[in-house]
Amino acid sequence: MSARSAGGAWVRRFHPAPEAAVRLVCLPHSGGSASYFFPFSRALSPALEVLTVQYPGRGDRRAEPFVTDVQEMADRVYAELLSWSDRPLAFFGHSIGATVGFEVALRLEAAGIEPLVLFASSRRAPSTHREGEYDNIGDDEWVLSTVKDLGGTPDELLTDDRLLRMSLPVLRADYEAARSYRYRPGPPLRCPIVALVGQRDTKVSLREAAAWRGHTDAETEFHWFDGGHFYLNDHVEDVVGLVRKRLLPAAV
C-alpha cells in the first residue's frame, strides 16, 4: 500500500504504525511537500505514527489548484483530520506550516478534540505581522533570491535555473498565503506550544517567537538551535528527541 493510498489525497503515511497510540501531524514550509518530513517519520515510527500533509499543487498533487489562503487551508486540513482523530493528535509545523497547524488546532479544540501539543518551528507567533514582507511576490528574481537566502534548498535545485524557476508558482502561492494571513483574535489554545527557532533565522525575532506565549492557556517552551530558517535540516536527531520526550509518555 502506497503512502498516498493509505492516507488519501491530503495525508501521507510513509511509515504506518497501527499500534502507535499517538499521531503526529506534520505540516511543511512554503514551497515544501510532504516528503520533507520523511526522515521524521522514519525516526519516530513505530512509537508514533507520523501523518504528513501534502498541500495541493505540489508533488503528486501538482495538477491541483493551489490554496493561497491559510484559513481555507486550515479548514480543509481540519476536515481531513477528523477521520484520524480516533487517537490523540499532536502537530509539528515548519514555517508557514506552524501557522496552519495553529489554525487547525484551534478548529479541533472548538470541536471538542484536544491536541496534545503544537510544535511551532521557524515561525513567529500568529499575532505578529511584518508589514510589506511579501510585497514583491510578483517579482521572479525576488522570490528566487528569498529562497536562496533562507537556505534549505537542495544544491541540485539551486544550480539548475530551469528547475528553480519551475518551483516559482508553488513558492508564489505559499508566499501569497503568508502575505494575506491575519490572526483572528479569539480564545487561545488549551494545548501547550513548543516553539523551535534557529538562532540566525531572519524570519523570526526573539520578540516574535516569545509572542507564542499569548496563544495558549497552557505552558510554552522555547528551544533555540544553531542555524537559520532551516535549522531542522541539521538537527533532525535533536528535534526528534524533543518530540519523543514530549509525546512518548502520552503514548503509553
UniProtKB/TrEMBL annotation:
Keywords: Plasmid. Gene3D superfamilies: alpha/beta hydrolase. Residues 23-246 form the Thioesterase domain. This is Thioesterase. GO terms for biological process: lipid biosynthetic process. InterPro entries: AB_hydrolase_fold, TEII, Thioesterase. SUPFAM superfamilies: alpha/beta-Hydrolases. Belongs to the thioesterase family. It comes from Streptomyces globosus.
